[in-house]
Amino acid sequence: MLKENFKIRSQYFIFLSFLLIINGCATASRRPSVSKEIPLNQLCERQKINWQWDTINQIVWLSAPEFKAGVLINSPLMIFQGEGIVLSAPVRIKKSVVVVPADFERILIERLAKGLDKNFKFPLGNIRYIILDPGHGGKDPGAIGVTGVEEKDIVLDITKRLKKILEGYGISVKMTRETDEFISLQERTEIASRLNADLFVSIHANSSPERNVDGIEVFSLRDLGYLEKNEAQRKDNHRLLFGQLAMKKHHPDLENILSDLLYSHKQAESPLLADFVAEQTAQYVETSNRGLKDARFYVLRNTLIPAILVEVGFLSNPREEKFLKTSIYRQKVASGLARSIVEYSNR
């Protein structure tokens, strides 16, 4: 568990470090060329630095009590405390050992060990800005209940209530739609890409051929394959995001690294949040917890930030539809979702 938490927190820090870099600190300092290479594990042991090699994304993560940092294998680009630094040579794998250039210790390890800014506090898990996405709308009614109630109306009302509660906690909220209008799936993901948000939450109501099925279930993104990662809409959304940032435009290496970090952070954080929201909301609402699920829904795979899709209940179940038609129950669902999101953030 500690190892998993370290990985998640490290990835989140590096992601935010990149945002700091590309919002004004992107000038990387060049260092004199050195040929000597040193095993990273020896340096970290000597300086009491935790480190981890993500073999999938080929990123080395480092951690000390107050700092996190990282560097991509076969790249000289290093991220430390919001600063982009170019080492004298790339970090490499040599006979299954991670080796770093001689200036790595001077530039990074010593800074981490000494802790240059003792007042620096990184707000782990601090959710400040959320995009709420009430599903369907306008010409798209979504699921139809046994008495004719439409999903689009139920989820819009719940989302408005959820927005009000979250704002009461001091969280900024943007809704993809606030009226009964049709917003395409493409537009919903583009909204998420234009805004500097921490989380995307899509609200839906479920349906099943079996009328006795009930409860809440929450989806996170199933791992994407090569073709899905290169889907046209994902590429467009990356361009939307990168276009707003103060970094060198059309820089393939930086864009590829940032894309990998965004995906790693999303895949680490989303299932944890989804599982927590499902459990806590079902308990608060007093309904069945159908648990964490994964899928490749359009709004999950084409949003770049941590994202979950919540199914608040089954309109195909006469009893649950009856509940969802009442404002009291919808308020309870909104309260349960808000409490679970805030509690997760505060963990």
Task: Give the topology, please.
Elements lengths: L1 H21 L14 E3 H8 L2 E5 L4 E6 L2 E6 L4 E4 L2 E4 L5 E3 L2 E5 L1 H12 L14 E6 L16 H18 L3 E4 L9 H10 L4 E8 L9 E6 L4 H4 L2 H12 L8 H34 L3 E7 L2 H4 L5 E8 L3 H7 L2 H20 L1
Parallel strand pairs: 9-10, 9-11, 11-14, 12-13
Antiparallel strand pairs: 1-8, 2-3, 3-4, 4-5, 5-6, 7-8, 12-14
CATH architecture of the largest domain: 3-Layer(aba) Sandwich
Uncertain stretches of 5 or more adjacent residues: 1-34, 113-125
Order of helices and strands: HEHEEEEEEEHEHEHEEHHHEHEHH
Shape: elongated
**Spatial separation of the terminal alpha carbons:** 14 Å
Order of the strands making up the biggest sheet: 10-9-11-14-12-13
CATH topology of the largest domain: Aminopeptidase
- When the domains are counted, the total is 2
β-strand number: 14
Counting helices, strands and paired strands, the structural category is: alpha/beta
Task: Write up this protein.
This protein is α/β, with parallel strands linked by helices and 347 residues long. It folds into two domains: 2-114, Copper amine oxidase-like, N-terminal domain (Copper Amine Oxidase, Chain A, domain 1); 129-346, 3-Layer(aba) Sandwich (Aminopeptidase). The chain has eleven helices and 14 strands. Strand 5 and strand 6 (83-86) form a beta hairpin. Helix 1 (2-22) crosses helix 8, helix 4 (151-168) packs across helix 11 and helix 8 (252-285) crosses helix 11 (327-346). Mean pLDDT is 80; it is low at 1-34 and 113-125.
